[in-house]
């Protein structure tokens, strides 16, 4: 793509999200979402193919529906409260419709069906933007209306997302679908704690974004989109296999890596609010996630996966640039000792 | 405690910066020095614990386990030298780094005061062990073994996290030093029954309890020698140590909640000992014998009498040294014949007589011969379980008999008789191997002169 056009489009995506996060007028928020949606469609279609077109169409349809639902909720809120300011949404109907609309944007169950298919149809870099940057805007709105969200709906969606994210990823070998299901599960964790302590939602979002960025960077480096091609990494760059191991185990939530921190904090907050069965169930369902991450590490780092002989001396035409990988690796694996610093967020 | 932890962390830069011909020497020497430092902790003057800081302490229960952990690292390094000799340098360094990382986490686990810190480090020991089993094991079954190991332990311990946090809500702090004095009886309710279960299941899986023991034969058999040694000697004892610490908070539910687990342990120790008699795989035999000995520890911890606690602690230390030594002996067989089948390496006494002496000593301590500390542990457990209920003497006596049976079966099959005709040329015992066995046996025999240091905090 022409670099100038690409810059303009990326800036529009950025601006859309910024408008959503910084506005206090509901109409501006809706405008921000639409701007974001329209600008990201060319990004999703960067490598033109019928599959990419299908993925962009699916993305556009679901996100547009969600924006329309959001508009309806805004109008109902306007009708009942007479103002456009984004605050606690007092009308329960408007609040429920808004929650469902934002869940559709994020990819929570039962609106999760678009996530694996869209992520699979696009290139790795576009998938990266889809799974990290696009989650910021809806999550910021959820954060702002969190005092008024119906707890039952949100918790049901969260727990079902964790279950679907874990179960759905079990049969996958395509890396982008694995990352999509992992995103569904992590969104579930984030929204489960939203009503009790929204700060932890932001913490979980931050750590999730860092880990997903790391994973995608490592995939881009080895240009691999399937488990099989990832398993050739030990031939080309053995150090990458160690980094993949550490990041995957961190995503699975194993102590002492930093992926354990959001899970631990969320379980702590939920238990302090006297729900004991829920965090136990969530924690055990997160083990499904860990299973397919571990399976991925088995084929990549922990075994020397069988490959044909000419894989060992593979031509490497250009060194891929992986932006910011060292700090991302540190952030996605070693942040656990910094947990007491969370007290500054109060 | 930092005087032990920081040198152990520093073992990792030591391996990466050593020259090719010095890595084994450097790491083994420095880890031996670290174990000498930890010996000073065995001096526990009064009935209290030695508190070094708010985060680390050492207690008559954790000090012997700590000394065992630090003693075992040089032994693991010595045992691994042969099977790693053909690997590239970076992989050797990675292996030693994994062992040092595991050692750090283990030391911090045994000395942690805050129970959540104990939990995090308890889980953290899983990652290096998984990497050691899966990356450096030899058969294809190791993948399955790693998965079983990881998931059995995690499913057991995630409820423990929730339980610890809810206890923290109830009592305000999980610092172990405080809880000893604040301890109150748990009220009788359904949710407290689940709390008891959530707290104990993690350690039951780790011990392992008879019904949940499937991960152990897989993991022990597929792990390389250092992995087997650390699994058998220390990681199982993490479960015992955790149980000993946490049962303090769980009264009076333990009085009735313990019954199913006591039944499972009593039955399980007979079952697993009997399975040992039918094993063809040498490492599998030693793994099942570990399950059997640990079942005794579970019985001792759940009975909660002063004598049984003494027996549990002594048995943990004794079994750690004995089991690790048996794995080293099995490994010396494996390195020569590349097979774990017992009958393929028979009659070794005629070929390797000094190793036969070590086999004899290891088997004798495994069957709890007086005056070894294995006997002290088992005897205390048998006596306290007899006082708890007279009928258990039948099962305990049967277990001691069957333990003797399979230990002697293992000894006679591998050592006595005519050697096989296909052992044409096996290398004689290396000095390294003899030193390894001596370093296992010497603490075991010396401790029988002064067993009070391993008898724990109820002495």
UniProtKB/TrEMBL annotation, chain A:
Catalytic activity, EC: 7.1.1.2
Positions of transmembrane segments: 5-21, 27-45, 57-76, 96-115, 151-171, 202-221, 233-254, 274-294, 322-345
Membrane topology: Multi-pass membrane protein
Boundaries of every NADH dehydrogenase subunit 2 C-terminal domain copy: 290-342
NADH:quinone oxidoreductase/Mrp antiporter transmembrane domain mapped to chain residues: 23-285
One CC-aspect GO term: mitochondrial inner membrane
Subcellular location: Mitochondrion inner membrane
Key words of the record: Electron transport, Membrane, Mitochondrion, Mitochondrion inner membrane, NAD, Respiratory chain, Translocase, Transmembrane, Transmembrane helix, Transport, Ubiquinone
Record's catalysed reaction(s): a ubiquinone + NADH + 5 H(+)(in) = a ubiquinol + NAD(+) + 4 H(+)(out)
Biological-process GO terms, alphabetical: mitochondrial electron transport, NADH to ubiquinone
Assembly information from the UniProt record: Core subunit of respiratory chain NADH dehydrogenase (Complex I) which is composed of 45 different subunits. Interacts with TMEM242.
PANTHER family attached to this UniProt entry: NADH-UBIQUINONE OXIDOREDUCTASE CHAIN 2 (PTHR46552:SF1)
Family, per entry: Belongs to the complex I subunit 2 family.
Protein name: NADH-ubiquinone oxidoreductase chain 2
Lineage: Eukaryota, Metazoa, Chordata, Craniata, Vertebrata
UniProtKB/TrEMBL annotation, chain B:
Presence of the UniProt keyword Lipid metabolism in the record: no
UniProt keyword Transport, yes or no: yes
Keywords: Electron transport, Membrane, Mitochondrion, NAD, Respiratory chain, Translocase, Transmembrane, Transmembrane helix, Transport, Ubiquinone
GO biological process, one term: ATP synthesis coupled electron transport
Topology within the bilayer: Multi-pass membrane protein
Residue ranges constituting the NADH:quinone oxidoreductase/Mrp antiporter transmembrane domain according to the UniProt record: 112-397
Domain of life per record: Eukaryota
One cellular-component annotation, GO: mitochondrial membrane
UniProt catalytic activity: a ubiquinone + NADH + 5 H(+)(in) = a ubiquinol + NAD(+) + 4 H(+)(out)
Membrane spanning stretches: 21-41, 61-80, 92-110, 116-133, 145-167, 193-216, 223-244, 256-277, 284-303, 309-330, 351-369, 389-412
InterPro entries hit by this protein: NADH4_N, NADH_Q_OxRdtase_chainM/4, NADH_UbQ_OxRdtase, ND/Mrp_TM
Compartment(s): Mitochondrion membrane
Residue ranges annotated for the NADH:ubiquinone oxidoreductase chain 4 N-terminal domain, each copy included: 1-109
EC number: 7.1.1.2
Single GO term (MF): NADH dehydrogenase (ubiquinone) activity
Pfam families: Oxidored_q5_N, Proton_antipo_M
Family that this chain belongs to: Belongs to the complex I subunit 4 family.
NCBIfam families: NDH_I_M
Annotated function: Core subunit of the mitochondrial membrane respiratory chain NADH dehydrogenase (Complex I) which catalyzes electron transfer from NADH through the respiratory chain, using ubiquinone as an electron acceptor. Essential for the catalytic activity and assembly of complex I.
Name of protein: NADH-ubiquinone oxidoreductase chain 4
Gene label: nad4
